[in-house]
Amino acid sequence: xxxxxxxxxxxxxxxxxxxxxxxxxxxxxxxxxxxxxxxxxxxxxxxxxxxxxxxxxxxxxxxxxxxxxxxxxxxxxxxxxxxxxxxxxxxxxxxxxxxxxxxxxxxxxxxxxxxxxxxxxxxxxxxxxxxxxxxxxxxxxxxxxxxxxxxxxxxxxxxxxxxxxxxxxxxxxxxxxxxxxxxxxxxxxxxxxxxxxxxxxxxxxxxxxxxxxxxxxxxxxxxxxxxxxxxxxxxxxxxxxxxxxxxxxxxxxxxxxxx
Length: 259
Description:
With 259 residues, the protein is of the alpha+beta class.
């Protein structure tokens, strides 16, 4: 994969002309439903879905962020969710109140998921308007309780078939078996033509790395760089799933029924 890929939008044009519906529901073993939406970044439906999962996102994502800055305190000021913690580390990580830091990181994640992006100026929004976002929430069929979600994006910089997984979260307290894999597999059930899923994880998150590796993800040593969505390879390990090299997610997707 080349380090930098410039415009065209062949991939996005293909999706806009191929996808017949941009929202829907999937069924999994009649126990769970997956509500999904494909939209641009300013769609109110996307904002609503993000708000609905904000608390769960903070609960699940914060510990990995905290573990990363414990081992890499110099990177604290460079993270969207961690930069507000910089003053709390001025005396050094050994003297830091890590419980307070985790609370602050959770607050930052909550703010990120509930913020109204339309309040940002055109300078921020305009470069992102051509991006497509895929968002899905998994719920219990009977109670409608949200137990997980996934959010992905496709931008004009991505080659045909590429999609970036931004966050995948399943409630760890409930310990649902393989629900996270089903959510990841839903990408292949819903979006036609996906060839490669790529994502970034904190290099300190060994448990997630082991899990994704078991699904067929491998390390991408030359990650694609989108000018509007830069990834720092020192702060993230980039992983990729190629549908030509693995069949794990395709087999999992076969359990999902499109309603």
